[in-house]
């Protein structure tokens, strides 16, 4: 398993390299001059030329990329001229906030998806099954920003049960309770689509596994239904569930951007959105690289968990 993890890490290197090239070139394709955008409309030609030299924009494109990639590999993503500080100092404080939202959303998606899928599979083809799948499809296919606005209107504006924006940490006067109140709506918005996908996967896996011969043998031995389900059916159905749940973490990163923007959650996604609108190149490139690294690490972790859950894969 260690050798497998090392191989996957080595495979991740060209992926991250490709992502860095795409991000770098994409920012170069944005219309306009970065130096002029930073200096504003009152900039003089001399000032623009000096800024271009400062940012190395007067150098060949391959030189600009290798220079940026070298510094990025050492943790230096450049300087945010818009915010007046290094990009790494802008991004690092946001990572913790995004992790809070991401972990909460993932746990909520897993709990809702697994619970709904088990209930639907246990009552397969009944009205409970159809209702679970229908609600999951309706909520799961809703755009995150639209769902977020609906939740804000219902639970924040109309009912006044939850705050509509911002984030309070554990050091605020409200403590953990206040943090959870601010976290509830953005976490539910982010978890909706992944939860619906997990629900469908759990339902399909459980129904398929329930028809296998070893399940019939377990029932023939006189084992209780709950024992057969948890020890045999659910355990055998677990590997594809882990895989699909892990893949949803990648979606959570995209959905979190919309949730952070709608709910003004001070995380990496909102900072990326603000940097794109302000054309803050250093912050955009650093944020996308952080997200790419997290996505690769999550995929590696999911693959290892699948191997742990299904020992047969270790010999393949």
UniProtKB/TrEMBL annotation:
<dbReference type="InterPro" id="IPR045621">
    <property type="entry name" value="BPD_transp_1_N"/>
</dbReference>
<dbReference type="Pfam" id="PF19300">
    <property type="entry name" value="BPD_transp_1_N"/>
</dbReference>
<feature type="transmembrane region" description="Helical">
    <location>
        <begin position="286"/>
        <end position="309"/>
    </location>
</feature>
<feature type="transmembrane region" description="Helical">
    <location>
        <begin position="12"/>
        <end position="30"/>
    </location>
</feature>
<keyword id="KW-0472">Membrane</keyword>
<keyword id="KW-1133">Transmembrane helix</keyword>
<dbReference type="InterPro" id="IPR035906">
    <property type="entry name" value="MetI-like_sf"/>
</dbReference>
<dbReference type="Pfam" id="PF00528">
    <property type="entry name" value="BPD_transp_1"/>
</dbReference>
<dbReference type="GO" id="GO:0055085">
    <property type="term" value="P:transmembrane transport"/>
</dbReference>
<comment type="similarity">
    <text>Belongs to the binding-protein-dependent transport system permease family.</text>
</comment>
<feature type="transmembrane region" description="Helical">
    <location>
        <begin position="179"/>
        <end position="199"/>
    </location>
</feature>
<dbReference type="InterPro" id="IPR000515">
    <property type="entry name" value="MetI-like"/>
</dbReference>
<dbReference type="GO" id="GO:0005886">
    <property type="term" value="C:plasma membrane"/>
</dbReference>
<feature type="transmembrane region" description="Helical">
    <location>
        <begin position="133"/>
        <end position="159"/>
    </location>
</feature>
<feature type="transmembrane region" description="Helical">
    <location>
        <begin position="241"/>
        <end position="266"/>
    </location>
</feature>
<keyword id="KW-0812">Transmembrane</keyword>
<keyword id="KW-0813">Transport</keyword>
<protein>
    <submittedName>
        <fullName>ABC transporter permease</fullName>
    </submittedName>
</protein>
<feature type="domain" description="ABC transmembrane type-1">
    <location>
        <begin position="95"/>
        <end position="306"/>
    </location>
</feature>
<keyword id="KW-1003">Cell membrane</keyword>
<feature type="transmembrane region" description="Helical">
    <location>
        <begin position="99"/>
        <end position="121"/>
    </location>
</feature>
